[in-house]
Amino acid sequence: MSIQSIDFTSLAPPMALAVGALVVLVVDLFVPKGSRVPGVLALVASVVAAGLMPATSGDQTLCVEQSCGYAVNALTLSLQAITIAATVVVVLMSMVSVKDARIPAGEYFFLLLCSASGAMLVAATTDLVSLVVALELVSLPTFALIGLNTVDRRAGEAALKAFLFSVASVAVSLYGLALIYGSTATVAFVPLSIAAASNRPTPVATAGLVMVLAVIAFKIAAVPFHTWAPDAYEGAPIPVAAYLSVVSKTAGFAALTLVLATFASWYDVWAPVIAVVAALTMLLANMVALRQRGAVRLLAWSSIAQAGYVLVPFGAVVAGTQGSAGLLAAVVGYLVAYAAMNLGAFAVVAVVSRDQPRARIADFAGLAWRSPWLGLSLAFFLACLAGLPPGIIGLLIKVQVIAIPVATGAWWLTAAMAVSTVIGLYYYLSWAAVLFKRPEELAKTPLHLAGALPMQLAVGAMMIVTVGLSIAPSLALGLLDRL
C-alpha cells in the first residue's frame, strides 16, 4: 500500500531540524575547530523550525486509505512549541559550553537537533510503533551527548548507565507492544481506543499496557525508574542536562498522554498505578534533594519531583471518574511553566560553572552581589519552582494541578502533593538564601562573563517568559484553548 497524501506543511518543523542537523554535520567539515558556525547554524535551524510551526490544528498526513500516520491537534502544537522553544534555549547555552569544554561542535549540534526532531514527532504519532521509534530517536542521541563531556570523568559512566537502562526499556516496550497487538490485533491509537472501550482488559493486554507505561516512566525519570537521571545530569554538559530535564520529559509526557487517552476506558487499571508512582516520585525526590550539595544534582532531583507533580492529574482518576475537563490543560500549563523556570535555572548554573566547574550550592554564595541580575534571576526561578511569590506562575500551576485530585476526591494523593511541596520549599529557599549572603572573598570577585553572551541571552529570555507568565498566567494555563 502506498502513501496517498503527504502534507509537508505539517511535517515542516521536524524536517527543518533534521535537515539542519545534516547541514551542521557537513559544514563542520569545512570550518576550523572551535568555530561557532555549527552553533549558529543549529540556532538558525531551530528558529526556522519554530517559524514553520502550523498556526492551527487539525492537519493529518502520511495517510493510507483511512489511516494517517501523523496528526496535528492542539495537544501536538502545544507540546511541539515547548520542545522547539526549549531547543532554542539549549542551543544558546551550548554555544558557550561546547567551546569551553572543547566538545566537537559538529557532532554535538547534529545529535542535539536529531534528538529534538524526534521529540517533535512524538506528540504527532498515531500508533504505538511510531511512538516507540520516536521516543528512541529522542533518547539515543542523548547518550552520546552525555559522553561528549570530556571535562568530567563521570560522563562516560553516566552515558553508559543511561544507555543500558534505555536498552532494557526498549526491550520491555517492544514486548509490551507485542502483547497489546496480540490481544487487540492493532497498534493504531483509534482502533485501540475502540477495542478498549468495547472490551474489558485481558491479563495479557494489561501486562502489555503496564510494560509500555513502565518505559514511559523511565523516559520521564519517575520512581522507581529514575536511578539513571541524577548521574546522567551530573555527568552531562550542563546544557544537555537542561535538555534532558525539559525536552526529554516533554516527549515522555506526550507519549504518556497519547497512551492513556487511547486506553481511557481502562482507567481502573492504570490510574492506581500512576497515582502510586506520582506519590512515590514526589516524596522520594524531594526528600533526597534535601541532602544535595551540587547545583546540577539538586536540579536533577528537583526535575524528578516536578515529574511527579505532572503525574498527579493522571493519578487522580483513581477516585472513580475518567478525569476532569481541565486535566490536559493542567498538564500542558505545568509543562510550559516548568520548561521556562527550569531552563532559566540551568542557564544561570551554566554561567556560574564557568568560574566554578563543580557548581556546588556553596559556590553561589553572594551571587546577587557578584552579578545582581543573574542572582536575582536565579532567585526568581527558584521561587517559581517552589511555587512562592513573586513566582506566581509556579504557585498557580501547582494549584491547578492539585485542584484535580481535590475535585475527584483523591485525598491521599492531594496530601502527598501538599507534603512534597512543603519539603521542596526548604531546599529551594535554602539555595535562594545562599545567593544573598554578604560578600566574602569569593563573592567580592566579579563573575567571569566574557564570551558568555549566548548564555546570558538564554537567562534573559527565560526571565522574560517566567515574568510574563506570572503577570499573565493564562498564556500557559489556557494554551490548549487557543490552539
**End-to-end separation:** 33 Å
Helix content: over 70%
Structural class: mainly alpha
User: Which outline best applies?
Assistant: globular
* Strand order, sheet with most strands: 1-2
List SSEs in N-to-C order: HHEEHHHHHHHHHHHHHHHHHH
For the biggest sheet, the summary is: 2 strands, antiparallel
- The low-confidence parts are 319-323
Structure write-up:
With 483 residues, this protein is mainly α. 72% of the residues lie in helices and 2% in strands. It is built from 20 helices and two strands. Helix 16 runs antiparallel to helix 17. About 1% of the residues have low confidence.
Topology of this structure?
Layout: H1 8-27, H2 37-51, E1 60-64, E2 67-71, H3 74-100, H4 105-122, H5 128-147, H6 155-184, H7 189-198, H8 203-219, H9 228-235, H10 238-262, H11 267-289, H12 295-315, H13 327-352, H14 367-370, H15 372-386, H16 392-408, H17 411-435, H18 441-444, H19 453-471, H20 474-477
Antiparallel strand pairs: 1-2
Helix pairs in contact: 1-2, 1-4, 2-3, 2-4, 3-4, 3-10, 3-13, 3-19, 4-5, 4-10, 5-6, 5-10, 6-8, 6-9, 7-10, 8-10, 9-10, 9-12, 10-12, 10-13, 11-12, 11-17, 12-13, 12-16, 12-17, 13-15, 13-16, 13-19, 15-16, 15-17, 15-19, 16-17
